[in-house]
Specification:
The chain is an alpha+beta fold. It has 3 helices and 4 strands, in the order E-H-H-E-E-H-E. A hairpin with a 4-residue loop joins strand 2 and strand 3.
């Protein structure tokens, strides 16, 4: 299954801030990426909110201090996904990933 996602600069900063710990090194960052990104996207796939060719934008929501996942494109071909970091907003849906 090919599902692509992009992180806003604020989302990247949040993940790095949450995942940086001098005592634990890269392992802590790896666990943080799994907790904040991999698991929620896996939940979206398993709940069939995301399908092959979908483009997911991950942004940081300052109001609730959490990442927000938004579907920006649906059913894009491999060529469309590889061609741009900003796919056409075919349909914009806020997705709800189980925590």
């Amino acid at each position: 299954m090919l599902t692509c996602s992009a992180l806003s600069d604020q989302a990247k900063s949040f993940v790095l801030e949450e995942g940086t710990d001098i005592r634990y090194g890269a392992r802590h960052l790896k666990r943080t990426i799994a907790r904040l990104l991999v698991r929620p996207i896996s939940n979206l796939v398993s709940s069939q909110q995301v399908h092959a060719g979908d483009w997911i934008l991950v942004e940081f929501d300052e109001n609730v201090h959490r990442l927000r996942f938004t579907k920006r494109g649906e059913g894009l071909s491999i060529q469309e996904v590889g061609a741009s970091n900003n796919p056409p907003a075919v349909e914009v849906k806020r997705l709800k990933a189980a925590s």
